[in-house]
C-alpha cells in the first residue's frame, strides 16, 4: 500500500500554538516534494477564519495552502492535490460535508491508490478511520452514514482522557464509553490517542509518535498501555482482532 498518513490527536497542545507541538513531524512527513497542501476546513462553521489559521501555519513551515471551500469544484481540487490536511472541529459536520461534496471515494483514491500524504487532526483523524462511532463530538448534523474514509481498518478516539481519580463526576469515563462500543458485535479496535500523540502510517507500518502514550482497546480484551515508538503495524493487517 502506498498510503502515508499522519493522524494527530489534537491541533493545539496546552502551552503552544496551532499545530506547534507537531510541526516538526509535519515537515518530516510532507518533506520537500510537496509544495502545496489542500486544506479541508469543513469541521468548523467559520471556514474562512479556519483557513487563515491553517495557511499561516503551513506557510511558516514552507508550504502553500489552498482551502477546498474556496474551490468551485471540490472534487477536482482533491484530484489535483499534492497532499490533504483535514482539520478538527465537529466530526459529524465534517463527515456530512465530505458526503455532500462527493469526496469520500475521491479522497480514498488519492490516498490509497495515488499515495498522496494525508494528515488529520482531531476530527480529521476520526474521519480517516473506519467510522466516526468513537468520536467525542455531539451529532449536531446528520451525515448519511457514520462510515468514514476507511484509510485504516480500525477506529481512533482522539483527545483520549484517563479517569481523574480525584473527580466526583459520576458519568461514564472515556474507557467505559469505548467498552460500550465494543459491546456491539464485530466492532474494530479503538486506539485512544492522548493529546500530544499521533500515529504515523507509511504503507503497512504504523508507529506511535509524539510526547504522550496511547491506550489500545480490543473487543473482549483488557485495554493496554503503549508508549511513543510503539509499532502498531498489526492493526493495519486485520480489523477483526478479537482473537489476539
Automatic annotation (TrEMBL):
Q: What's its job?
A: Hydrolyzes dipeptides containing N-terminal aspartate residues.
- GO molecular-function annotation terms? dipeptidase activity; serine-type peptidase activity
Q: Which GO terms describe its cellular component?
A: cytoplasm
Species of the source: Himantopus himantopus (Black-winged stilt)
What this protein is called in its record is dipeptidase E
Entry EC number(s): 3.4.13.21
Q: Which protein family is it in?
A: Belongs to the peptidase S51 family.
Q: Which locations, inside or outside the cell, does it occupy?
A: Cytoplasm
Q: Which reaction does it catalyse?
A: Dipeptidase E catalyzes the hydrolysis of dipeptides Asp-|-Xaa. It does not act on peptides with N-terminal Glu, Asn or Gln, nor does it cleave isoaspartyl peptides
A Gene Ontology biological process in which this protein takes part is:
proteolysis
For this UniProt record, the keywords arranged alphabetically read as follows: Cytoplasm, Dipeptidase, Hydrolase, Protease, Serine protease
Query: Coiled coil located at which positions?
Result: none
Q: Does the keyword Nucleotide-binding apply?
A: no
